[in-house]
Amino acid sequence: MLSSNLPIEEEEDYFDYSYDEPGSEPGSITIDPSALPSNITLIEYDQNNAYRLVNVKPEDCFSCLTNNLVSWADIQGLGTENILREIGQVFQLHPLILEDVVSVPQRPKIEDYSEQLLIIMHSIKPNQDEMGFTSEQISFILGKNYLLTFQEDNIDDFLKVRERIKLNQGKVRQLGADYLAYLLLDTLIDNYFPVLEDYGERIEDLEDQIVLDPSKETLQEIYNVRRELLSLRRSIWPLRNLFNALTREDNNLISSEVYIYFRDCYYHTIQILDILETYRELASSLMDVLISSMSNKMNEVITLLTIISSIFIPLTFIAGLYGMNFQYMPELTWKWGYFACLFLMLVIAGIMTFYFWRRGWFKLFLKE
Known about the structure:
Layout: E1 2-3, H1 8-11, E2 39-45, E3 50-54, E4 70-76, H2 81-90, H3 95-102, E5 109-112, E6 117-126, E7 133-142, E8 146-151, H4 159-167, H5 177-190, H6 192-212, H7 216-246, H8 256-321, H9 337-358
Helix pairs in contact: 5-8, 6-7, 6-8, 7-8, 8-9
């Protein structure tokens, strides 16, 4: 599981997809030492009944291949190699499928293995502090009457779907495993919208900060948002091709009745991409606006210093003139010379201040 709300030096791995060591055998399984132990939950149902078994063994899943029920085996955790290999033997999974399942993160994709369909997606959830998001890879293997899901974490992302199966809500128990796959994929798609909504609010807050009080911290926050949106784009952009492939009626694992539902997922993906690209453009433009705002702030400071300097230049000239201490300066022996000099300096300063005020220069610093 990967989080986007990390320091830059820790977040760089998010931009690199997993790969095997050069020269390794195709289909080899490399388990991440930090992966959670694998746990299998099996749900079987038809129109009349639904059964849920927890902590089942891989050999208990043989019934999924022989009965007439729709079977959903959910494997949470990718850390137990024996369980994963036994699951692969029970369902006769291609070695490349298991390799893609345990190699996280993978680029979202779809692979057709004739009797099985592999779909890899990322589950995106907003962080509790509404800053950034957490990404988890979820792999789907669709068979004739069964569906396998592999999750990195033991957090149930599909609780609502389980409740719909239990309570027999909607069409889930009237249709097959392909419709179940649609429900789960649609759940992951819907989870993108709250994340994008959080980014929309963050961008609005950044706009207010730029207008009211631009700073280096604001610049860093804009950079973080742009970086996180780029990470999010890498998870979303491949989904367009993925769901486009699922809408083509050339796969015997997906019924004609379910194709239209995958088409709805495709349209939602296009909508998410439009929102994401809009936010990326806004985040990029905020950088230019911030630089322009900081330049304007610097110009105001320079303008203020220029006004002050312009007022004191003639006063400095008068002070310098009478500071030369020549012997034959008539004003030096005049009784009222000192007060007359101060009065002249005040008059000049007042005239120049009035002139600058009439020109509107002080409106840059005074709030109306």
